[in-house]
Amino acid sequence: MKHFINSLRKSLWIVSAICLGTVSCQKDWDDHYSTDYKIVPGNTLAERLSDGSFGEDAELFIKVLKNTYFTSSGRILPYSYLDYLDDDQFLTVWLPKASSLTEEERALYTKTNKTYSENVLVSTRFILNHIARFSHPVGGHNADEFFMMSKKRFVSESDAIDDVNYIKDKCNIACKNGILHAIDGKLVYRQSIYEFLTTTDGYKEVIGDFLEKYTREEVDIERSVEEDIDSLGRTTYSDSVIIKRNVLLDRYGYIEREDSNYVMVIPTPQVWKEKYDSIKKFFDYGYVLGEISELSLKAADSLQYYWGQQILMTDMIFNMNIKNNQSKNDSVVSTRFRSSDRKKEKVAYHTYYNPYSSDGLFSKHVIGTEKCSNGRIYITDEWPFLDSLTINVPIKIEGESAQISSKQLTTPVDNVYRNSGSMKISGEKVLYVIGENGAYNWQVEFPIKDNLKGKYRFKVALVPDASSGKSNLIHPTVTYNKIAIFDPKDPSNPRKDLNFENDVTKVDTLDFGVVEIPNCDYKSETSRLTLRLKSAMTNSNARNYSSVMRLDFILLEPVLDE
Question: pTM of the full predicted structure?
Fold first, then answer.
């Protein structure tokens, strides 16, 4: 293990020595960083810490280093962190103040024969939080921002690091394999937002374990040191930096990354659990594999939990690096915000105004905050979001972008897009539907996706046929799995209005009434829910109605029981 870091480290040391000769808080700084190896100090970091000049602080730190070991794949390796500071890689070490540790911390950190998990905890949260790769001297005019080996980001300034002061005359101590700084305290290991959710009791159970299922480790190419190309053409690394990546969080925000700046608004675990229990009924998929079986029901349960948890996260995460979120007096947008959606819908989805005011999202119902290494968490004692903007949202299908199930047509339909002239429509175009060869008895079906289980009010907006000045006469049918669940002509349906006639003086929204959908198809690849529109024209009423339908949009509005 003595030479497990490649010779590139020595080259970096030489470059650092040349570049940093002018930065000093000691008069002999230039000599320490000379390229004349005869005057480079002969002591390693481990030897320098052990020479007695740093008193109790070094004694305690060495005891911790000596009794904490490297780990790998469940094994404790025979290589301590004191050995590590005696190796030939180049490091910068910040020596913490012994008095800054609590009695509990001292007992754990200096414990001999640590378990695997104890070695991991002490090394990550204490030792490696005070060690960084490469050269990081102090005393210059510019702040130095870098990552510790704990993967936490820190900023070092001329007199302090992370608000912990440097001890004068005990910084920039040049050693054979690095630089040593003494500080008047310890550097706090702050969890990332992701770590908080996956390790904190309560949150781990309601969301952390769920997130962990979709996390994998991968090499951070930009921060790793390339070594060679293997026989298969793959890059190998002599010093690889491993980071976590959560594929599920790609949709919400990279809260597992240390080089980020996020705000998360989340209720207490109890409120989260109560909220999930109240909305999971909307995510009842029934069965999903074509037939009722134990396997299909388990798959439906998995989908219910998967999408139910995700929809609760809709507006919880805010990227504070984007321009929209950098004004404290206006508004912030969650990571689900898309400006194109705003222009199209003109609805304030994913937008929260005056978030720092007493009634704002980052203040109202907030009972505590958690400062994290990559942002901040606001904890609330009530559910902070509106269901109408996150969970039970309307389903709107623009006519020009609607999918059409041609297999169910009794007569062909021409998909012609026409501007609606001076009429005010949703979007820029409408769907123009006519029967084959001008026939008036057309029929068209629209598959509908992303519905939840429950009641929806079905509406369609029609643009009148200006050329004829006649209205349409429409017969709607809603089917689920090809079984009619709403049909005005069904004798068992108590509704008396069989067909619907639109107003010829405006873009008219026809209300077909409330339909109860038996199962959820949220984010499913295929749709089981269909709206069929059929022309109700006959030979006897053809002179009164137009055979041309111009569809502006289809709208499904959630109806919640009181």
Answer: 0.78
